[in-house]
UniProtKB/TrEMBL annotation:
Residues 268-287 have a biased composition (Basic and acidic residues). SUPFAM superfamilies: Thioredoxin-like. GO terms for molecular function: protein disulfide isomerase activity. InterPro entries: Thioredoxin-like_sf, Thioredoxin_CS, Thioredoxin_domain. Residues 262-287 are annotated as: Disordered. Belongs to the protein disulfide isomerase family. This is Thioredoxin domain-containing protein. GO terms for biological process: protein folding; response to endoplasmic reticulum stress. Residues 133-265 form the Thioredoxin domain. GO terms for cellular component: endoplasmic reticulum.
Amino acid sequence: MELTSGAGDAEKVTAFLTDNALPLFGRLDGDTFDKYMEAGKGLVWSLFPNPEGGADALEAMHRPVMGEVAKNIRGRYFVTYTDTEKFKEAIDNMLSVTEFPAIAIQKKAGDKKKFVYTGEMTAQKISAFIDDVDAGRVSPRLKSEQPPAPSEDPVKVVVGTSLEKDVFTPDRDVLLEVYAPWCGHCKKLEPEYIKLAKKIKKEELTDLVTIAKMDGTANDSPADAIDWTGFPSIFFIKAGTREPITYDGERTAKGLWKYIKKSSSKAQEIRERMERRKGSSKRGEEL
């Protein structure tokens, strides 16, 4: 491919090189994955059942349709194909797709939000779906566990589909830990986090502050403001706001409790209640 105009324009040259750094319809596997992530553009995953002949046959079979799609969206997305048998588990984990054919769209490669198309596999239909994604007319497919049964546990369990309702509340602050079951730091934090939640419950402050957790490996966030790249990630969301504050202080019950008392939108009410309780009992003692 040649650059036929704008050769003297540095921005145009850079854009041209970026748009053509990877194939029009390219293989996505362990060797190329990082290249697509680093390119910083949107990603279209073409997920088709494997034919006899493997990946080479897959590419030849679907290039006519997906190549046309790629031309329509050049500059915004890279279009890929992958071995849906070899990478079946990874596709499920990353995209929540288990049945093929399907087209998965990430507005930016690696984005937790993905948009999945399973309709008629024609260039016109797929291109129209991508245009609808860009226009905000399609809702993302979110990975989520089933909402838990009502519980008296001091730490509230949040899942992807309940996050909006549970975390962005008009009358309660929420401390949310996003954890991974295999994470050593998360396991170390767990008893401290439970201790904090029990403190909130003991002081009868659960109507003001919710202590919550969500498995970040099994659930996606529907809110752009709540995003994580490591575990544990702790967010503090004040009542009536949609602007999470990332907590990076001491990961102990005492440190978290001190932060809540200082930063809470209900700080004055918490202090007043604590003073009233101290006047009648010793239950308001510090952790």
